[in-house]
Amino acid sequence: MALATSLRKTASKLMAKFGGEVTIRQTTTGAYNTTTGTATVTASTTTVRGVLEDVNAREANELVKVNDKKLTIAAADLSFEPSVSDQVSINGEVMQVIQIKKIEQDNTAIVFEIYLNS
């Protein structure tokens, strides 16, 4: 556990030093109202620092294409785990989360690699 804690702190420091500012818009669906036929949707935003890069050919699959982007953020900088229903805003461009890879040590999240599509 001590290694995981140290890795989380190091990842957070590296993102603060080398990362750019990004905003994650987390959308959660609430209770379904049978009378109106709708569900309440709540959105919250969190600003963190992360490293954005192009997806390379080895990472491409059915969901992730070569022209997509990969955002790496420190797990310690988030109070939630990102999901594919989230959106990321970078320099005014809104991108949809299409896939997430969680890098862990001892079952503790260290960084999230978030694949984005414009």
Folded structure, characterized:
There is one protein chain. With 118 residues, the chain is mostly beta strands. The chain has one domain: Thrombin, subunit H, CATH 2.40.10. The protein has one helix spanning 2-18, and strands at residues 20-33, 38-54, 69-74, 87-90, 93-105, 108-117. It has a 6-stranded antiparallel barrel with strand order 1-2-3-6-5-4. Strand 4 and strand 5 form a beta hairpin. The protein starts with a helix and ends with a strand.
* C-alpha Rg (nearest Å): 16 Å
CATH topology label: Thrombin, subunit H
Number of domains: 1
Number of strands: 6
User: Can you tell me the CATH architecture?
Assistant: Beta Barrel
Beta-strand share of residues: over 45%
The dominant shape is globular
Helix content: 10-25%
Blueprint of the fold:
Layout: H1 2-18, E1 20-33, E2 38-54, E3 69-74, E4 87-90, E5 93-105, E6 108-117
Antiparallel strand pairs: 1-2, 1-4, 2-3, 3-6, 4-5, 5-6
